[in-house]
Design a protein that fits this description.
Blueprint (H helix, E strand, L loop, with lengths): L4 H31 L11 E6 L7 H8 L7 E7 L6 H11 L4 E6 L8 H10 L6 E4 L4 E2 L4 H6 L9 E10 L3 H24 L10 E4 H6 L12 H11 L4 E12 L4 H18 L1 H5 L6 H15 L2 H4 L1 H21 L5 H4 L1 H15 L4 E4 L2 E5 L5 E3 L16
Helix pairs in contact: 1-6, 1-11, 1-13, 2-3, 6-9, 6-13, 9-15, 11-13
Length: 398
Amino acid sequence: MIISFLQMGIVLLSIASTLYLLVSCYAVFNFNRIMKKSYKNVPHPPVSILKPIYGIDYQLKENLLSYCRQSYPEYQIVFGVQRQNDPAINIIRQVMAECPHIQTTLVIEEEIFGPNRKISNLMHMEQRAAHDILVISDSDMYVEADYLSRVIASFDTDFKGLVTCLYKATPAPGYASTLGAMFINQWFLPSALIPAMFAPMKNCFGATMAIHRQTLNEIGGLKSLVDNLADDYMLGKRVQDAGHPIMLAPVLVENRVQEQHFKALLYHELRWARTIRAVEPLGYASTFLTDALVWGSIASLILWATTNPFWSWLPISIALLVRFSQTALVNRMTKTQTIATYIFIPARDLLSFLTRIVCYMGHTIRWRDDKGQVRVGGQLTTQPSINQPAKDEGPLVK
């Protein structure tokens, strides 16, 4: 039987996606080597760390305390919440009491400036920042003692760009959290490292965004991001448009992942998918190239039905071998060697593939307590019942 053009295309896609996995293996290996470099004799300008917080994240206290244990001479931590009754306030006060040697500030402001509540929170916090170098970091991150030194190593007297860093995931108990952590470690992390090997950084990540206040003001300040769901992406884009570089710090922060149930995991990953599709439609479409196991399985079925069944096992066998090798390299770098990260590979890859398909079936996202719609370019409109009435601000992502 002659293989059709469509079937041949799937076989070629299987080969291309397997090659992608091989490149990702090298990217992980290379970054792990770079992280071993020492960063002792580097500049130590004073820094203000901004920690926007909403509710109690998994192991929140330990996450916050890790920022109070930095081997860094002078820094301030500004904690920010938006509700007087936020349960995280008690934990924040405990952290502040246990770290009297660190300059800490708690900001509680309920005023909202736009749909992106995190940016509204940060706008209030920035007013209390004592230093000109700002490090914005999500509340579900845990860092080692040399984190700040490694991030700020790029801030010499001439640097006016932005420094960001990648993150690894450590799951809470439960299969949903394990699958969520696998997505970060085995998909997001390698896919973010590959473009960084071949070209200047174009993106930054909410795990860490370090920027000089002068540069932030130059690009319009935080208020220019308040209507956008992809605030980290837009911050990086604005910095680049202003002619400043984005640098990737040689450090991995740790994301403490807790998904309460499978439904929460689906909402989380679908929000991420629709946000990326909104800001990078072509780039998101290319993520289907990362589904080596799915395409390898389909290619094997095609070969089994059209050619010698003996050779039909080749695509899926090679894809599995490379996929497991990638997992082993990632586990070594992230120090997450557990049997579940291998057993759940087929389920994890199938879930990612199906999420990519569902992503194209709508534009609604759920974010914390909010439900909204993400538009072309990442513009966020919350539902009228949650926030203010939605305005006609541009085309929806279809």
